[in-house]
Automatic annotation (TrEMBL):
A Pfam family per the record: Metallophos
Residue span(s) of domain Calcineurin-like phosphoesterase: 1-200
InterPro entries registered for this protein in UniProt: Ap4A_hydrolase, Calcineurin-like_PHP, Metallo-depent_PP-like
Taxonomic placement: Bacteria, Pseudomonadati, Pseudomonadota, Alphaproteobacteria, Rhodobacterales
The protein's name in its UniProt record: Metallophosphoesterase family protein
Length: 244
């Protein structure tokens, strides 16, 4: 079974279109036209066109049953900020605020022609008015995980040793410590983003595919066959080294 996956997008519509083009070329070369394509989350923030990314993925999902889009921590933060107002949300880490430079939410608002530098209440009111309800409902309805073949797709990771049905939904979009350094088999291969890596990295029990598009890096697309992984390039498939 072939599966495709794309890492954290962060508002980079041009990079996303290019990643889809590489997948389309791979489908044609390998006869994998029916294979699912999973976007690992973090559609928004930091990059220049979060509004365009959401609109593009909404159109694709409406017409293409192969498309799966997960929620990331940034998508959840935007949804919460729109729902609850400019104050901090207790579900988000205390060191991250949506309109801080660290989160990059201002870039998302700018893509909807909202000036993020005004008084917080006014910024929030304008954002609620300008961001289409359909976009908000799309983000709010995104799932936090997807299981297919030998893989479990999730934005950030899982808490090792805990049955999946008992996992904390917040950890699925935020976890790093305790997951990234765990060498044990998780059952399925956990395919995740959230923590940027220089290159797509196969750790045996997990696959990291966020290669830092938010920070000037590439938006990586991969093909997965069982537990073998291939980076999709302009020249075709490039095997990702796997621990033996």
């Amino acid at each position: 079974m072939t599966l495709y996956a794309i890492g954290d997008i962060h508002g980079h519509l041009t990079k996303l279109r290019a990643a889809h083009a590489r997948i389309d070329a791979d489908r044609a070369a390998h006869g994998t036209g029916s294979a699912p394509l999973i976007h690992i989350g973090d559609l928004v923030d930091r990059g220049p066109d979060s509004a365009g990314v959401i609109a593009y993925l909404m159109r694709l999902r409406a017409s293409d049953p192969r498309i799966v889009t997960l929620t990331g921590n940034h998508d959840a933060m935007l949804t919460r900020w729109l729902e609850t107002g400019p104050g901090p949300d207790p579900r988000d880490p205390p060191h991250v605020r949506y309109l801080s430079d660290k989160a990059g939410g201002g870039a998302t608002l700018a893509s909807y022609d909202v000036d993020p530098t005004g008084p917080p209440d006014e910024v929030h009111e304008e954002a609620v008015a300008r961001i289409p309800r359909a976009h908000r409902e799309f983000l709010a309805g995104l799932p936090r995980w997807h299981r297919a073949g030998e893989c479990l797709f999730v934005h950030a990771g899982i808490r090792p040793g805990i049955p999946f049905e008992d996992q904390d939904p917040e950890e699925l979009i935020w976890i790093r410590d305790g997951f990234l350094d765990d060498p044990h088999d998780h059952g399925p291969l956990v395919v995740h983003g959230h923590t940027p890596v220089e290159d797509v990295t196969h750790a045996g029990n997990r696959l990291a595919i966020d290669t830092g598009a938010a920070y000037g890096g590439p938006l990586s697309a991969v093909a997965i066959e069982g537990r073998d992984v291939f980076l999709l390039t302009e020249d075709g498939r490039l095997p990702v080294p796997r621990p033996r």
